[in-house]
Every structure is written in structure tokens, then in C-alpha cells.
Amino acid sequence: NGAGKSTLVKVLTTITSPTSGEATVLGRDVTRSPLEVRRQIAVVLQQTAVESLLTVQDNLLIYAYLHGVGRREAWKRMRSLVEEFDLADKLGETVYDLSIGTKRRVQVAKIFMLDSPVIFLDEATTGMDPFMKRRVMERIRLEARSGRTVLLTTQVLSEAEQLCDTILIIDRGRTLASGTLQDLRRL
Fold this sequence. Notes:
Blueprint: H1 5-12, E1 24-25, E2 28-29, H2 34-38, E3 41-44, H3 56-66, H4 71-84, H5 100-111, E4 118-122, H6 130-145, E5 149-153, H7 157-163, E6 167-171, E7 174-179, H8 181-186
Parallel strand pairs: 3-4, 4-5
Antiparallel strand pairs: 1-2, 6-7
């Protein structure tokens, strides 16, 4: 806590301006070209970012529509994701009435409604049961293998060990170590 993980995500996703230095996403400067950066990313923030008064179904579909996914494709993706994230029985429920873990599943499922080349996941599995965590981690692994860049923040070292090609350890905004899991073990 307090290391700067969420702040780093907010800078890279153009939510917060950097106080110093430079940051780019896919070669685009986050300060000078924020709209270009936003068109290339999907984000799960540590705070719940779902529309509480909408149903689960509407959260997924409207998110896809707002990002240019066509109606037929959005419905196809939604049907697949509600099965994968065990949300089929929750489709008609308003998000406000869901448990914290279920809200988190909806939030994570939303980013997979898009084909963004870069995905930011800030503490994505927080509040999820162990089975759903495993399912989400497998989905993240598949997305990375498909060529998408995934930036994952976590305090759970086993998640980083299982999922990450490169690990960055930060403390109060400063890099303490960076490299592969083997590199970090050698340190």
C-alpha cells in the first residue's frame, strides 16, 4: 500500500497528469495525446467503475456500444463473458444490489468486451473468491498470449509470478527492481 501502483496506472491511463518525467503508451505521450492513448486502452481501476443503477447486461452492452462495438458483436461477446465470469444469473440485476466480488467481476468482464491492444488491471482480483480469481488469471494469461499488452498491479506476489513476463517492484513511486521472475530471484 502506498507504493504508487494505482498512481502509475492513473498516469498511464491519462486520468492523472504526471508531476515529473514522461510517460508513453504505445509511443503516444500521455500528456500531449491523451485521446489517442485512451483509444488504445481498456482499464480496470482499483475503485469500482460500473454504473450502479444499470443492470449487469446494460453495463456490458452499453460499454461496448460506447466504444464502437456493433450490436451483434456486443451481444456475442456478452453471452460468452457472462458464462466465463459466472454472471448469467445476474444479467437482470442492478449492479447496486450485487456483492463487492460480483461487482468486480462485472468490471473486469467489461474490459473484455473491447479489443484494446493494452489492458490495465489495477488489483483486478480484489474481492473475488479463489475459483473466480483463477478464472480471471487464466483469461489474463490468454489475452497476453494473444498479443495484448497487459499491465497488472497486485500485492499478491503469486499472481505476479504466475502471470507476468516482466515484474516491476515500486515503493513510494520509485523503482526498486525490475526484470523477469528469475532476475528478481537472483537479486
